[in-house]
Design brief:
The complex is a heterodimer.
Chain A lengths: L2 E3 L4 E5 L4 E3 L2 E3 L5 E8 L6 E7 L7 E2 L2 E6 L4 E6 L8 E9 L5 E3 L3 E6 L1
Parallel strand pairs in A: 2-12
Antiparallel strand pairs in A: 1-4, 3-9, 5-6, 5-10, 7-8, 8-9, 10-11, 10-12
Chain B lengths: L3 E4 L2 E4 L5 E7 L5 E8 L3 E8 L6 E2 L7 E4 L5 E5 L8 E8 L11 E2 L3 E5 L1
The chains are: A mainly beta, B mainly beta.
């Protein structure tokens, strides 16, 4: 069974600085997809970035980028130039191609400090 | 432009009562999901439906039943509510899987359920 681990329950960062959130996963599949979702206090789930395992190039979306290490089964999220609006829970998620299940990690609560 | 709609948004039940949470999507998605969110545990998959007419268990299915009524609707039922089922419940949908697996999920706004 696939599992997703986020080892940092809480993190904080100063506004305008850079922070990296960690995610590791366990799977026997070779092709799969990884996602980072953001959940602000409004409770909405917002897709931040996605990565396809067969692509070696790390995904980037504006200030958000990932460091995908397939052999290590690691998928970290880097937020550059942190903004107050980045304060939220961040969830790492795994989607295999054998079954249509999306599995989430326990989340990291990020606080951006002015 | 509704997306995924969950009803109700809030509900308080007594132990032993039954309840059905409703979810509907208007994006013509094939796959639908029910999650529960508890502090420190993230979103845990209860049940999912990869297509109309099929349902499968997720990580925490005990105490729940689901119905994929049609392509649009996927309901979650608590037959005999227990305090351990106090949680926030999210419904999500996705275009499909296999060739369309990389499409992300779209989430509803959640239902906060308290069981006394």
């Amino acid at each position: 069974a696939q599992t997703v681990t986020q080892s940092q329950p809480e993190m904080s960062v100063q506004e305008a600085e850079t922070v990296t959130l960690s995610c590791t996963y366990d799977t026997s599949e070779n092709n799969y997809y990884l996602f980072w979702y953001k959940q602000p206090p409004s409770r909405q789930m917002i897709l931040v970035i996605r990565q396809e395992a067969y692509k070696q190039q790390n995904a980037t979306e504006n200030r958000f980028s990932v460091n995908f290490q397939k052999a290590a089964k690691s998928f970290s999220l880097k937020i550059s130039d942190s903004q107050l609006g980045d304060t939220a829970m961040y969830f790492c998620a795994f989607l295999g191609t054998s079954y249509d299940k999306v599995i989430f990690g326990p989340g990291t609560s990020l606080s951006v400090i002015p | 432009n509704a997306g995924v709609t969950q009803t109700p948004k809030f509900q308080v039940l007594k132990t032993g009562q039954s309840m059905t949470l409703q979810c509907a999507q208007d994006m013509n998605h094939n796959s639908m999901y029910w999650y529960r969110q508890d502090p420190g545990m993230g979103l845990r998959l209860i049940y999912y439906s990869a297509s109309e007419g099929t349902t499968d268990k997720g990580e925490v299915p005990n105490g729940y039943n689901v119905s994929r009524l049609n392509k649009r609707e996927f309901s979650l039922r608590l037959e005999s509510a227990a305090p351990s089922q106090t949680s926030v419940y999210f419904c999500a949908s996705k275009r499909g899987w296999r060739g369309q697996s990389r499409q992300p999920q779209h989430f509803g706004d959640g239902t906060r359920l308290s069981i006394l």
